[in-house]
Amino acid sequence: MLLVCTTFPLIWVGGLVTTKKAGMAVPDWPNTYGYNLFLYPVSEWIAGPFDLFVEHGHRLLGSAVGMISIALVVAIAIWDKRRGMLTLSIISLIAVIIQGILGGARVIQDEVLLARVHGCFGPAFFALTVGLAVATSKRWHSIQPVVHPGSGRLQVITVITAALAYVQLLIGSFLRHVPASGSHSDFRVAVIFHVIVAFLVAVSVFAVAATALRGFSEAVAVRRQSMFAVLIVLVQIGLGIAAWTFKYGWPTFLPGGEMFSQLVIHAESVAQAGVVTAHVATGSLIVGVTVAMALYSFRYYSTSPASLVPQVADKSTLRGVSL
Description:
Blueprint: H1 2-19, H2 42-47, H3 50-79, H4 83-109, H5 112-135, H6 138-142, E1 146-147, H7 151-176, H8 184-215, H9 220-248, H10 270-300, E2 301-302
Parallel strand pairs: 1-2
Helix pairs in contact: 1-3, 1-5, 1-10, 3-4, 4-5, 5-7, 5-10, 7-8, 7-10, 8-9, 9-10
């Protein structure tokens, strides 16, 4: 859980780096203006320009996530005897290393494509940390799977929902990192698809909630998470409209434009940066929650009676001590 709780703020700060166009505030990597990353003077970091403060802070927080990932691998190797968990923890460590290299390459090359890949890979890593937290939780170990005739439907819907949520992030990344060669029509098409997929994500999340609440009383975690997903999707829709309004004005396809006709938002203002960054981070949160729903839907229900033989974890298994 510690890894999840540090990765999510990292996504917030990373989103702020992009929003404030601070990605090139520190021109070298892995150093910071010639200093070792961890030896850069705190006084210069705190008192320096805001873009430097954000970018260097992003690097420090990313390093902390990397260290926690190393600790997680060690902890699972010692206390959790499930081979798959050790493999997943190693994959997460490799993923955070790759993400760090992508971030560094983005600085060295100053390339929009690398910035986009870096922005898409972060939420994928966050989803992986959520999966690790779920699989090492007390709730996960306490669940006794049962056979349910409609479980396949619930599992399919949750997987589709998680996939749609991530696809939505990919489209959003294109809108955030528009290439120099991109045309107005390319941007318009991306916006249209972003709106369409947002609608599909909302419908899918509501479908999961309706399905889980109607006939799956055993799946307590899925039911609770589906309701939380409904809430954050509604918040995300509001943030999306607000982000567009703060950057481009009130959407012309929505009523009430006259109310905002005199609204003036300064580019890269605190309000604009806060709303846009919150929209980005909430998108990653939706991915994390939907991944957790999908995992729990498979944990609660088995497709065959033969698979109900419990795989008892070793007493030394991590139980709720997920780093």
